[in-house]
Design a protein that fits this description.
- The complex is a heterodimer of chains A (about 80) and B (about 550).
- Chain A is mainly alpha-helical and about 80 residues long.
- Helices cover about 60% and strands about 0% of the residues of chain A.
- Chain A has one domain: ACP-like (Non-ribosomal Peptide Synthetase Peptidyl Carrier Protein, Chain A).
- The two termini of chain A are about 15 Å apart.
- With about 550 residues, chain B is an alpha/beta fold.
- Among the domains of chain B are: about 170 residues, ANL, N-terminal domain (Rossmann fold), CATH 3.40.50; about 90 residues, GMP Synthetase, Chain A, domain 3 (2-Layer Sandwich), CATH 3.30.300.30.
- Helices cover about 30% and strands about 25% of the residues of chain B.
- Chain B is built from 17 helices and 32 strands.
- In chain B, the strands form nine sheets. In chain B, strands 1, 18, 19, 21, 22 and 23 form a six-stranded antiparallel sheet that branches. A five-stranded parallel sheet of chain B has the order 5-4-6-7-8, sandwiched between helices.
- In chain B, helix 7 packs across helix 8 and helix 11 crosses helix 12.
- The chains are: A mainly alpha (about 80), B alpha/beta (about 550).
- Chains A and B meet through helix 1 and helix 2 of A and helix 9, helix 11 and helix 16 of B.
């Protein structure tokens, strides 16, 4: 749980300007980051690169369910569990 | 210096007829995959035929006849495009991701009396309609009951699914080759988008060159990575549908891991902006042999780094890899460079792949400001001539005559050149190398952006006259974002962002804003954008001027 919280703090901070732009104060676990317009596919890949570098992990996008990993909670769990 | 190639054009055809011929020959073959929909040529043609009847009826009194498609990567968007063409009209792509005000402006400039919207575009349509002053014919091919729309927007006439699918494919209405096939709006310097009018002859010439060069056949399966508001999408649709091949539309999520999609759909032709390859490479997804089914890989829209071309070649060993170049005004792409691992690395300039040679029938020249040809190796403005050069800008004779010009040194019968505004030079082998822009237009992951238009939107949104927008950060393939500077002590970033998002597409809204008491000026008294760009540094996600 500690790892999850640590990753969430990083992701929330990274996406803070984008959440602010979308009027999202408390993102739900199942918030679709792409469908909600918070970030586009390129932006999410950039975030993934940044998170991988920050936490020294590797996420194989070919092995994950894209519908899950593109949600707020799913993305955090993918990094925290990698 | 200039280079030209010869061509021959088959006359008397149109995009609609090209597809109809393929429908007759390949009726049961797969034509389109988009989301859960998998349509045969017959499915596609029946839907296009149903839509065409209403488009033709709505466009009887407009010239040029144009109809809009509010696109969101849904299967019905493609039926809409083809339906408009079957009706003998030109299509005007709008984008469900764009702000309603921008879609409304493009619709107003085109004077289209008719619009097609899929179910996924309906929220955007609801936002758009209150901005539309004229009565519209609204075609909703996914909607069975249009009663709610009719009640909500009584000024417009709505047509639902039941009336928009023909029982059998019909023949497209005949059109002249010089008729407008589509009007593609691009960023304009004055704050208004400008509509490039592209004719059937323009596109058919390009298609002929593509079919021959890449030997496209009915067995091919093409990617569709581009939104319909990006003219590179025209390649995917009509290169495929003229030959009985299929188009496979990637959703935003599928674009994040296209390896799966390429394998699942067994794609043979890939076409995207280089940014896709860069991101995949960065995430270690361009593994050697990853894309065994691909035989043609094309990149266009921004600079292609040599490292990406090389990695893609290794990932798709059975594929050719080409870098294409072309402004919308020259119809999709007009030059090409084929990557060859043995010799290309040394032909790259500063690690960027050249843009190569003109396609058959097209000519390219590099000229000085007085339009005189410059010598090999000298930088100048890249100009292109040939049957793909578009008809001009919709309703803007002044801009058209400024950019589509005759050259004082060209005594040929087709002396009409498009001044691209791109800087380029021919290298010592005579290969064209792109060398940036001569003005303030940039490419953001393939999207063409006039910084002047973004600055106009920022002025409106902030209420401050003294503003500047610079591209930042700048990566291997070019800039990937924008930073907006506003003169003043403070700025309500959330409010300015929201107001800008109401005016321009998301990719034109700066990701960061900086309020500065004084913006630096250069020796000419203009805002010194280079100094602003060089002064940006990132510290914990904030931007400051050092």
């Amino acid at each position: 749980m500690e790892r999850y919280n640590e990753v969430e703090a990083f992701i929330r901070s990274y996406l803070a300007p984008r959440f602010a732009r979308g009027g999202i104060s408390d993102p739900a676990d199942d918030l679709s980051l792409i469908d909600s317009g918070v970030i586009d596919s390129f932006g999410l890949l950039e975030l993934l690169s940044a998170a991988e570098a920050k936490f020294s992990v590797k996420v194989d996008l070919e092995e994950v369910d894209m519908d899950v990993v593109t949600t707020y909670g799913g993305f955090i769990r993918a990094i925290a569990g990698a | 210096m200039q280079r030209a190639t010869s061509f021959s054009l088959s006359a008397g055809r149109s995009l609609g007829r090209s597809v109809a011929a393929a429908v007759a020959e390949h009726e049961g073959r797969l034509a389109l995959v988009a989301g859960r929909e998998r349509w045969s040529y017959r499915d596609l043609a029946c839907r296009a035929s149903g839509i065409a009847a209403h488009v033709a009826d709505a466009c009887t009194e407009t010239s040029p006849p144009l109809a809009a498609v509010l696109a969101s990567r849904a299967a019905s968007d493609y039926a809409g495009v083809l339906g408009v063409l079957y009706a003998g009209a030109g299509y005007v792509p709008l984008n469900a991701k764009f702000p309603a005000a921008r879609n409304a402006r493009m619709l107003a400039l085109s004077r289209a009396p008719c619009i097609v919207a899929s179910e996924t575009s309906e929220p955007s349509l609801r936002a758009l309609l209150p901005h539309v002053a004229r009565p519209l014919r609204v075609l909703l091919p996914d909607t069975a009951d249009v009663g709610a729309f009719a009640q909500e927007f009584p000024a417009h006439r709505f047509v639902g699914r039941g009336e928009l699918i023909a029982a059998t494919p019909r023949e497209p209405l005949p059109v002249d080759e010089a008729s407008i096939a589509y009007v593609m709006f691009t960023s304009g310097t004055t704050g208004d988008p400008k509509g490039v009018m592209v004719t059937h002859a323009n596109v058919l010439h390009h298609l002929g060159a593509m079919w021959r060069r890449y030997a496209i056949g009915a067995q091919d399966r093409l990617s569709q990575t581009f939104d319909l508001t990006f003219d590179l999408s025209v390649f995917d649709m009509f290169v495929a549908w003229g030959k009985g091949a299929s188009v496979h539309v990637l959703s935003a999520k599928e674009q994040m891991a296209p390896s799966k999609f390429i394998r699942a759909e067994e794609l043979t032709v890939w076409f995207s902006v280089p940014s896709v390859g860069m991101m995949l490479r960065g995430l270690r997804m361009l593994n050697p042999g990853a894309f065994p089914s691909l035989r043609v890989s094309l990149f266009c829209g921004e600079r292609l780094p040599a490292s990406v071309a090389e990695a893609w070649q290794a990932a798709a060993p059975a594929s050719i890899v080409e870098n294409l170049y072309g402004p919308t005004e020259a119809t999709i792409a007009c030059t090409h460079y084929r990557w060859e691992s043995a010799k290309s690395p040394e032909e790259c300039v500063e690690g960027v792949v050249p843009i190569g040679d003109p396609y058959e029938g097209m000519a390219a020249a590099v000229v000085a400001p007085d339009l005189a040809l410059v010598a090999r190796g000298e930088r100048g403005e890249l100009c292109v001539r040939g049957p793909q050069v578009a008809a001009g800008y919709l309703g803007d004779v002044e801009k058209t005559s400024a950019r589509f010009v005759a050259m004082p040194w060209d005594d040929g019968p087709q002396n009409r050149w498009y001044r691209t505004g791109d800087a380029a030079f021919f290298d010592r082998r005579g290969v064209l190398v792109h060398a940036g822009r001569l003005d303030e237009q940039i490419k953001l992951r393939g999207f063409r952006v006039e910084l002047g238009e973004v600055e106009h939107a920022l002025r409106v949104a902030s209420g401050v006259d003294l503003v500047a927008v610079v591209p930042w950060p700048v990566g291997e393939a070019g800039p990937t974002g924008l930073v907006g500077f506003v003169a003043g002590h403070a700025l309500d970033v959330a409010s300015v962002t929201e107001r800008m998002r109401a005016q321009v597409p998301e990719y034109m809204v700066p990701g960061k804003f900086v309020a500065m008491e004084r913006l630096p000026l250069n020796a000419n008294g203009k805002i010194d954008k280079l100094a602003l760009q060089q002064g940006i540094k990132e510290e914990d996600g904030t931007v400051q001027r050092s």
